[in-house]
Amino acid sequence: MDLDITLRQPVVIECDATVVEAASSMAANGVGSLIVTDHGRPVGIVTDRDLVTRAVAKGADPNSRIDSVMTANLIALDADADFDDVLHTFSHHGVRRLPLVDHDRVVGVVSLDDVLVSMVTDLGGVARVLAAQIMFPHAPDEPPAPTTT
Amino acid sequence: MQARVGDELVIQGHHVGEGRRTGEIVEVRGADGGPPYVVRWDDSGRTTLMFPGTDCEIHRPASKENH
After folding, report:
1. Helices (H), B1-67
2. CB–CB contact A42 B51 (8 Å)
3. Which residues are registered as beta bridge partners of A101?
4. pLDDT for A67-117, tens place per residue?
5. Chain A residues with beta carbon closer than 8 angstroms to that of B36
6. Tens digit of each residue's pLDDT (9 = 90 or more) over A12-61
7. Angstrom distance (rounded) from CA A55 to CA A68
8. What is the Cα–Cα distance from A93 to A71, expressed in whole angstroms?
9. Using an 8 Å Cβ cutoff, are B60 and A100 in contact?
10. Bridge pairing between strands B47-51 and A71-72
11. For A58-78, how does the pLDDT look when each residue is reduced to its tens digit (9 = 90+)?
């Protein structure tokens, strides 16, 4: 990926784990999403928001299987996807987190927040360069001397 | 789940406002026909890398059934 983003390591959970186990894993690993696997193969993703809106808000049994609240059909990106692909995928599929895949293996997770922070950081760098050029110009504002042949 | 290039992938919407989506599998990344698959969606023409869920169906075009 050509973005300057520190990729988050994927944290996985098996599809027969419970909602409580998923929440505990998120807390222990300091993440807001888990890749749900079935015998090690990714089948979905569950976010902290899913736990709130699909489990807690509906009074679901905390021991419900996590695949009952996950988002199935996991949309992913190649680990070397370019910026346009990343933005388009977030936009087209209406998701906020995307796993990054190297061949058939999930190697990281990128969030829309990560992209935004990266863009703002880049803009901050441009603004600093611009401010320095305005405050400390390197060359006089004079036209170049004419050349004689 | 196993697929071949050229198979049709169908996702049935399960939530309000979600429609049925179909696409053609244009690349199989996993071993033995397993996911992830690169899918070209019929509605947008764009391709997406995805791991299908259990609610996803794969249909083989009739012309490929015996190949």
Report:
1. none
2. yes
3. A78, A106
4. 999 998 899 999 888 888 888 888 888 888 999 998 888 999 988 888 888
5. 42, 76, 101, 104
6. 999 999 999 999 999 999 999 999 998 888 989 999 999 999 999 999 99
7. 9
8. 12
9. no
10. unpaired
11. 999 999 999 999 998 899 999
Crossing angle of helices A83-93 and A112-135, in 10° steps, is: 130
First vs last Cα of chain A: how many Å apart?
51
Please give the C-alpha separations between residue A132 and each of A44, A51, A128, A135, in angstroms, as whole numbers.
Answer: 47, 47, 6, 5
> In 3D, which of B21, B57, B48, B23 has the Cα closest to residue A89?
B48
Cα A36 from Cα A51, distance rounded (Å):
13
Instruction: Please list every residue in chain B whose beta carbon sits closer than 8 Å to the beta carbon of residue A75.
Output: 48-50
Q: ipTM exceeding 0.85? A: no
Stretches where chain B sits below pLDDT 50 are none
Q: Chain A: residue nearest B50 by CA?
A: A75
Q: How many residues does chain B have?
A: 67
Verify whether the Cβ–Cβ distance B51 to A73 is below 8 Å.
yes
Residues A126-135 pLDDT 10s: 788 888 888 7
d(C-alpha A29, C-alpha A25), whole Å: 6
Tokens representing residue B52 in the block: 């299908």
Find all residues with CB under 8 Å of A129, minimum gap 6, and list them: none
